[in-house]
Amino acid sequence: MRALYILAWWLALPFMFLYLIWRGRKQPEYRRHWRERLGWAPKLPPGPVIWLHAVSVGEARAAAPLIQALRARRPDCTLLLTTTTPTGRATAAELFGPEVRLAYLPYDLPALIDHFLDRAHPDIAIFLETEIWPNLYSGCQKRGVPTFLVNARLSARSARGYGRIRRLIQPALAGLAGLAAQTEADARRLTRLGAHDCQVTGNLKFDIAAPDGTAARAEALRLLFAGRFVFLAASTREGEEALILDTCLEIDIPDLLLVIVPRHPQRFATVAAQLASRGVDLARRSREEPVGRQTEVFLGDSMGEMAAYYAAADVAFIGGSLLPLGGQNLIEAAAAGCPALIGPHTWNFMEAAKLAIEAGAARRVADAEDLARAVKQLYRNPEQRRLMSKAGWHFSQAHQGATQKAMALLEPELARLRG
Q1: CA separation for the pair 281, 76 (Å, rounded)
Q2: If phi over 0 gives left and psi between -120 and 50 gives alpha, with beta otherwise, what is residue 326?
Q3: Residue 338 has what DSSP assignment?
Q4: Could you tell me if 325 and 237 are in contact, meaning their C-beta atoms sit under 8 angstroms apart?
């Protein structure tokens, strides 16, 4: 099976570069640093190297508390963070600056992995969430590089997919030096696939602190919104904006302002065009356009301000959950004390969604029409919004501590590193 997997990668490699060229038409970043995808890691200074991999934006943000802890524990080490997407790389650059070296993850072919490891010479490899690459894990293990999977999650749907190639996945998981799962359910699924000694440490995203300046940005947004009732559609995915516009713009709320923040920045222009085609009175964040009494929709087409949007909103819908896309992270809304509404599809954050609902920090809606009804009901009930806000803050605080547990898992290898 490994030979078939490698053959499939070689056959797919030309198409991977065609994909980069195609994506690069709208996002030139996809055409940059392409040699890194062939293993050309940046040249690093002498000394021990801790390598982390976070596939995209959400994982890069989740890595922040762990990177902060690693820098405090081993300031003598070089930290290398690889990502897969340009938005993940841009987020990492914004969060960590020059103190963390950045690169793209090489494609999972033995020759490319060996080239990457020869150049990066990592002493520890740490992968976040659901990043299981058989050749990459095998390459690290053959060189004696302790490899960890932390903040690991595996939905039932993904587990069924991996189960079909268990003979390929099992050796990769069995060779890990440590595995820290978010929940008991994640640990059980990973164990069935071949992982050993899987520890449950919680979700690193509960430990993420709001970016510096969030309070000031939130206050500036409140002034911009001029006392309007703000319904935030956060991290929306393709197809959801149309559903929300069809139902929520018609809600009987006199001072309603719908704020839409698409999940992926490459869709900002597309969503703006969609709003313009509907004749919606629109203001865009990127153009610093004012919000007047006639403004119906504010498009949050900016990066790094989601925490401020949550802090400035009265109610938020968490995107990716109205359609079968798995849902986006609701923890940031809870931490900001923003009442959260989630759709029926939240398998990417199943445990967090369940606990947030039980805590009273979030409510589940069945569809777009039910979402509109929930927004109207919360508009009419300020006390319920206040209670959900308070519950969200307590919920986010109660589940912190995953970083400390992950660091305890890594500690034996961190202690062995030479200075």
Answers
A1: 53
A2: left
A3: -
A4: yes
How many other CB atoms sit within 10 Å of the CB of residue 373? Answer: 15
Nearest Cα neighbor of 178 from 134, 219, 145, 227 is 145
CB 342 within 8 A of CB 353: yes
Give 214-223 pLDDT, tens digit per residue. 999 999 999 9
Convert the pLDDT of each residue in 342-352 to its tens digit: 999 999 888 89
Which amino acids are annotated catalytic? 59
Look up the pTM and report it.
Answer: 0.89
**Which CATH number does the domain housing residue 41 bear?**
3.40.50.11720
What is the Cα–Cα distance from 351 to 79, expressed in whole angstroms? Answer: 31
Q: Is 279 left (phi over 0), alpha (psi -120 to 50) or beta?
A: left
Task: Say yes or no: 129 and 37 in one domain.
Answer: yes
* Rounded Cα distance, 209 and 312, in Å: 17
Residue 20 lies in a domain: no
| Residue closest to 302 by CA, chosen among 211, 240, 382, 403 | 211
Lookup: tokens for 393: 């803050």
